[in-house]
Write a structure and sequence with these properties.
Layout: H1 5-10, E1 21-26, H2 35-42, H3 44-58, E2 62-67, H4 72-87, E3 95-100, H5 110-117, E4 142-146, H6 147-159, H7 161-165, E5 168-169, E6 172-173, E7 175-182, E8 188-193, E9 196-197, H8 198-204, E10 212-216, H9 227-230, E11 234-235, H10 237-242, E12 251-256, H11 261-275, H12 281-298, H13 304-317, H14 325-339, H15 341-348
Parallel strand pairs: 1-2, 1-4, 2-3, 7-12
Antiparallel strand pairs: 5-6, 7-8, 9-11, 10-12
Helix pairs in contact: 2-3, 3-6, 11-12, 11-14, 12-13, 12-14, 13-14, 14-15
Length: 350
């Protein structure tokens, strides 16, 4: 998240003789994330216009919207909108196809998505050599952009870069959608400029129910923040990194003091262990090992050494897998255990 779209487009050579493809990654499977569905469900033409602009920019004659398999009704909305746009003559330069995924979380990775789109099992590819801009869909140059990125293009091209850069902060420009869930009074999707205080987002969501215990600000796969860490947080890429987390998918999960962090950690690792494609040993074996240790801890059967073993495994898994899935569970589990260690230790005393 946060990689400049223009830079990504620039990876496609102007002298390319092979077909060029554009893929919209609408495989919104990150737990706690539901902003893309709002764009596609309520303003599909905004996304289609963005795809048409991007396709023109990279000279792609074929584009795909790879949509989460569970979003069946939204795929129909998109297909109807595409028919309307085509009838109006807006898509003469590009053919856009809606493709429903099979439900695999790992297909959120662009190379796994491409494998799935080709009709194969959605396993991530090695990079190099399989950088999509060089060897993407059907071995041809491919750009993969997210829904929110593409939906920003119509405003940018209609109003110009200067107008767009007025939103946000220096180095973190533009608007951002935040899907707020958990212990708030009015969960939903809210649009703000990048750099907005987290407190402002929580106020828009009706405030926290009860006493705040922690916040996950970018979907389940980013490190949790304690109330003290979250108190003065500005929601942009750089500010989140300084706090040791990431803005990620913009899925803000609010937790009050009724939540058991060990139970949350177990629930999280169950999801990731189930979604692992099994291709990489650190992810395949590490997720199962952490799940087993957390299961014992939550059941009151854990040993004091288990906590340190979990932290050791998390540290060794990060950065050692073909796709980000290994880090996607290792980082948040490590943060939960480190920042709320006393809760895990209390389970040893039962």
């Amino acid at each position: 998240a946060g990689f400049p779209a223009g830079t990504k487009w620039g990876f496609i050579s102007h002298n390319e003789t092979r077909p060029v493809y554009l893929i919209c990654n609408a495989d919104e499977g990150e737990p706690g994330t539901f902003k893309d569905r709002q764009i596609m469900e309520h303003d599909p033409h905004l996304l289609i216009e963005g795809i048409a602009i991007a396709a023109h920019a990279i000279r792609a004659k074929k584009a795909f919207i790879y949509i989460r398999g569970e979003y069946r009704w939204i795929s129909h909305i998109l297909e109807n909108a595409l028919a309307e746009a085509s009838k109006a003559g807006y898509l003469e330069h590009v053919d856009i196809v809606v493709h429903r995924g099979g439900g695999s979380y790992v297909c959120g990775d662009e190379t796994a998505l491409i494998e799935s789109l080709e009709g194969k099992r959605g396993n991530p590819r090695r990079k190099p050599p399989f950088f999509p801009a060089a060897v993407g869909l059907y071995g041809c140059p491919t750009t993969v952009n997210n829904v929110e990125t593409l939906a920003c293009l119509p405003y940018l091209f209609q109003n110009g870069a200067d107008a767009f850069f007025k939103f946000g902060t220096i180095g973190n420009s533009g608007p951002k959608l935040f899907g707020v869930s958990g212990h708030v009074n009015k969960p939903g999707v809210f649009e703000f400029e990048l750099g907005v205080p987290l407190s402002t987002i929580l106020q828009a969501a009706g405030g926290v129910k009860g006493t705040l215990k922690g916040v996950i600000v970018g979907g389940l796969s980013v490190p949790i923040l304690t109330p003290d860490e979250a108190a003065d947080l500005k929601m942009d890429f750089d500010s989140c990194l300084k706090k040791g987390t990431m803005i990620g998918s913009g899925g803000v999960i609010v937790l009050n003091d009724t939540v058991s962090i060990p139970h949350l950690a177990l629930r999280a690792i169950r999801f990731y262990a189930h979604e692992s494609c099994g291709q990489c040993t650190p992810c395949r074996e590490g997720s199962q090992a952490i799940q087993s240790l957390l299961k014992n801890l939550v059941a009151g059967l854990g040993k004091s050494s288990d906590i340190d073993t979990i932290l050791h495994l998390c540290a060794k898994i990060q950065g050692l897998t073909l796709c980000p899935l290994g880090s996607a569970f290792a980082m948040p589990i490590e943060a939960m255990v480190t920042k709320y260690r006393s809760e895990f230790e209390m389970l040893l005393k039962r």
